[in-house]
Design goal:
With 225 residues, the chain is mainly α. It has 4 helices and no strands. Belongs to the VTI1 family.
Length: 225
């Protein structure tokens, strides 16, 4: 298996060229087909254009991992691929527009009217039903997308609320810690003062005891002498 930094780019480029070749052949053969065949061909071309677009996107991603010394040549190949893709997308749009105009002109030709068939031929009814189904499907997808957007917005609001609450809790905890630290500092100062006073009292008591002992010695000595 080729593990070089350009292997995936080369693979995607080869796949892209194959898709472009298939698209070119189908668009050129489209002129010799009737209406329904042309529509089916264009649907396949549209899917293959999406695949080709995906290949170009992958090439754009893979080029980021190619060494700088090799990148300029691959960037040129990527620009060429993008230009080919844009050209065939435009060709596809032109062919689709031509087919749409041809269908419109064909559908506008005079047709016998029947009171039993107010919507025209069965083909027109089928197209009308298909168009209605597509419209309903699009409406449903739009509603689903709107609902999903609302749910996402609600979830985002809940997340922001939770983050705000957590921030308040952290700030409260920080304030409590600061108060505790201040209380500990005051208690430490109080204990230090008490210890200092205790040593002072011990010193004074020792001095008093020493003076009393000295006085006792003086009194006894004076009595004996």
């Amino acid at each position: 298996m080729d593990t070089s930094p350009t292997a995936l780019f080369d693979s995607y480029e080869q796949d892209f060229k194959q898709f472009i070749q298939i698209i070119s052949e189908k668009l050129e053969a489209d002129e010799n087909q009737d209406g329904e065949q042309r529509k089916a061909t264009l649907r396949r071309v549209e899917m293959e254009l999406d695949e080709a677009d995906e290949m170009v996107s992958q090439m754009d991603i893979e080029i980021q991992g190619i060494p700088q010394s090799l990148r300029p040549g691959y960037q040129t190949r990527l620009r060429t691929a993008k230009a080919d893709l844009s050209r065939f997308k435009k060709m596809f749009k032109d062919v689709s527009a031509q087919l749409a105009r041809a269908s419109l002109l064909g559908s506008s030709s005079p047709r016998p009217y029947s009171s039993d068939d107010p919507y025209g031929s069965s083909t027109d009814r089928s197209r009308l039903l298909a168009g209605t189904a597509i419209l309903e499907d699009g409406t449903k997808r739009l509603q689903d997308s709107h609902r999903l957007a609302l749910e996402t917005e609600e979830q985002g609001a809940d997340i922001l609320l939770n983050l705000r609450q957590q921030r308040e809790q952290i700030e409260n905890s920080r304030g409590t810690l600061e108060m505790a630290n201040s209380s500990i500092s005051r208690a430490s100062n109080t204990l230090t003062g008490m210890i200092r006073r205790m040593y002072q009292q011990r010193f004074v008591t020792g001095a008093i005891i020493a003076i009393l002992v000295l006085l006792i010695i003086i009194v006894v000595w004076s009595k004996l002498s």
